[in-house]
Amino acid sequence: MNAIKVRGLQKSYRVYQKNEGLWASLTGLFNREYRDVDAVKGIDLDVDQGEFVAFLGPNGAGKTTTLKLLSGVITPTDGEAHVLGHVPWKRENEYRRRFALVMGQKNQLWWDLPAQESFRLHQKIYRIDPAEFIRTRDELVDLLDVRHALGRPVRELSLGERMKMELTAALLHSPEVLFLDEPTIGLDVIAQHNIQKFLKHYQEERKITILLTSHYMKDVAALCQRVVIIAQGEIVHDGSLDDIVDRFSGHKVLSLQFADERMPSDLARYGEVLEVVAPKAKIRVERSSIAEVLSSVLSSYSIEDISVEDPPLEEVIADMFKLTAKQQAEEKASQVPIP
Amino acid sequence: MYARAQTWWIILKICLEERLVYRGDFALGTLMRFLPIVTQIFLWTAVFASAGSVSIAGYSLEDIIAYYLLTMLTRAFSSMPGLASGIARQVRDGEIKKFLIQPIDLMSYLLLSRIAHKLVYYLVAAGPFALVYYICRSYFPGWPAPEVFAAFLLSLVLAFMLGFFLEASMGMIAFWFLEVTSLLFVYMLFTFFFSGHMFPLDMLPDFWKGVVDFLPFKFLAYFPAAVFLGKIEGDALVQGLMIQAGWVLFFIVSCRYLMRAGFNRYSGFGG
Q: Which ranges of chain B have pLDDT less than 50?
């Protein structure tokens, strides 16, 4: 069954365009220029119940706008969407009790009070059964390891603890759909890892539907089977992570460790040499010629260790963003009528 | 209904707790409000001395001071420090999103948190208020009749509601202008003069009295005080209370309407 169904969803904003300087500010008092910004340009998307989907895209691509549309914070300019059978921007309480949105750090918790007070409020506004509430809360704070911080005012918590409390608050009412906007932003590696581990475990256990945006490829690689890439308000790819690597990366990275200290000087004939630190070297090799290169290297030198890897995901994605931006620019250029 | 009442109870409790976090600042702020009493008493004494008469527009010095002390009390019910500017801040920094996403009504929430705010205020201020009234007891004509006193209490509660919904409506305008500081300044000036906070409104010349009767502001300070002092009686009293209740209703509706329109604009504009 589809948990999320989106057809032709569009959102454009009217923004006030201000030129630089004081004079422009003054003239802007009387004569304002506005510009329409198409944040989301008609996207289609189907997400099944129990899927864990990542939204990737450069800043300003429309990821957050999409999440806001699906959680009913904003109304679209055109198009339709159904989440759990509800139209989000109607903002029915029935729908609002079935999903959660976690966006940034200072969202649901009361700054000056301990998190447990905010949780009690959530119990009431989401009408959670008291016994169920205690059970869920205890489970969540234990999984996230923040039980000790329940009684401390939120403003005194560390960034990581606060994020964990936000997650707990969002999950208390056992939402069927969860939207996560950058859940690990600004956290250290350990805290990031903890949150990833928690999300993975929780999603596998409960089979809830999660849409996540993140800039950390590690989040995405660890969590999501499916990746939707948005660039300039359009979906440019929808598939698994491996697909992306296959589709957008024509290279592999070959790592070699030579048996003796003498390094060959002619490695460049196999491909771009990425780094050489004797006795190790890394070479970027065309995917199509990898077999050839391997046999040649193994027969020419005495090799201690060898590995072939996909390039880092960040690089692939960055390449892809560049590529799609170029394509979109070309498309635009070709649409301009020639006088 | 029961579930909703429980939600309200929890919101009230949590707001009370939050209020008590900054108890030091709160207590100091409350006590500082008693300072103007002294200056007002000196001011009116000087005014009467230089006028050389026993009464001004039907008010003796004692009447004026009693009136002033009573408006202090009504303002304690009807003033809403930080309500409109708080809404504006929430709109600006996006905290208002919470009320779009979670199944919780912004207006009920604001009202409950204001009730909590007031309860804590009365808790802190009850002692000083009682003391001041005790010291100044000789200025008062004595306790009013029980039914007048009941009308006075009712008008205080209505003054609270009028103050709340009027200022909340102002706050909702932030959905269009983002910043409402100047608007609030104008509002403050209006209430300052037209609520009767500074002087009894029946001192005004007839034309201005007519203007003031058409505005809701007099119900924020003048009306309850005048009821207590027995200036408004019988049919006029009943009529006054009904008009006050009418204004409350008007601003409840306008606040709801502005909130709904504001949410629509917010969600259309960008969130």
A: none
